[in-house]
Amino acid sequence: MLSTDMDFKKDASAGYLANHMARLFALALHDRIRPLGLAPAQFMTLLELWEDDGLTQKDLVQRLDVEQATMANTLKRMERDGLITRTENPEDRRAQLVRLTPKAKALQEDATSAATGVNEEALSALSPEERQAFVSLMSRVIGALQD
Amino acid sequence: MLSTDMDFKKDASAGYLANHMARLFALALHDRIRPLGLAPAQFMTLLELWEDDGLTQKDLVQRLDVEQATMANTLKRMERDGLITRTENPEDRRAQLVRLTPKAKALQEDATSAATGVNEEALSALSPEERQAFVSLMSRVIGALQD
DNA sequence: TAATATTGAATAGCCTGCTATGCAATGCTA
DNA sequence: TAGCATTGCATAGCAGGCTATTCAATATTA
Questions:
Q1: What number is the ipTM of this complex?
Q2: B40-115 architecture in CATH?
Q3: B127-141, pLDDT tens digit by residue?
Q4: Are B102 and B49 in contact (CB under 8 A)?
Q5: How far apart are CA A32 and CA A39, in angstroms?
Q6: What CATH number labels A27-117?
């Protein structure tokens, strides 16, 4: 009996595994940062703003590689939740500067250690060399998919 | 200057990379199967039904590791799109048997080769040994996150 | 400089995750 | 067997992806 493309084994498929793994990561992160009043996409956005407060929506779109509409919705929820404010941009009246509230600044330590905890849990079964290799392989696959 | 958890580098974070990679996989798959009238979650569901037609919703939930409500919505869209029908289960009137339409059966070859193409594109920069290692590492990380 | 092109954001609409509820069918047990 | 617990699904509501569209502000250029 010939083997064809129709024999598709999801448990050996990189795409299937990537999706499953990402869902589990998101769930684990969600569990840990929910007590802080944060959702995963908000955390990712905060990572950039903790580093550089006062970015524009466009800056965030480029740094996080999501669509502009996705970021617009995330920022709307973050504004609703008191994590950011938007202030006028003196250089361009179309764009606004996204600024962290004191509440958002205060979350940095707890949120980053929650995320570090998720990574440690996920990688707990891997040796240091394997962890390094895993991150490197994912980066290369991301590169290949971005062409 | 002390290094703390507050120095969180997203490009070295397994969770961030997993999310980014999964989004790129999903986009690539979506592009390739859109002409077939399929969306990614529908394809995943079809993979199980091509293998075993006549599963229940509960079977699909267990095999694909998604929540029951998620699968209920996916099946609703698949029924709307003429990919499945639901027939009475003689053994349990609560559950129905999900059956493929001829249309869905006819998509198997094209859809699986589209997915195979995405995997090949994604892994194109990796050696055969690296591809093997990558799949194995993802499986182990999934296992660690499932506890 | 007036007309046109580009750019930054907002909005609408869809898919796919999730949690929380509720309901009907089935199973168990006192 | 009557009552309670469990199970299979549907639905509501939300987050966060996406595309497509629109609008106002800015930039370019004829």
A1: 0.94
A2: Orthogonal Bundle (1.10)
A3: 999 999 999 999 999
A4: no
A5: 10
A6: 1.10.10.10
Interface probe with A: pick from B3, B6, B21, B136, most Cβ of A within 10 Å: B21
**Closest by alpha carbon to B13, among A54, A103, A116?**
A116
Q: Does B133 touch chain A (CB under 8 A)?
A: yes
In the predicted structure, residue A52 carries a pLDDT above the cut 70: yes
Give the span between the Cα atoms of A20 and A14, in whole angstroms: 10
B146/A147 Cα distance (integer angstroms): 32
State which residue has its Cα closest to the C1' atom of D27. A92
**What are the sequence ranges of the domains in chain A?**
27-117
Asked if the Cβ of residue A40 lies within 7 A of any atom of strand D, the reply is yes
Q: Structure tokens of A144?
A: 């290949």
Q: Where are the alpha helices (DSSP H) in B14-127?
A: 14-33, 40-51, 57-64, 68-80, 102-106, 108-122
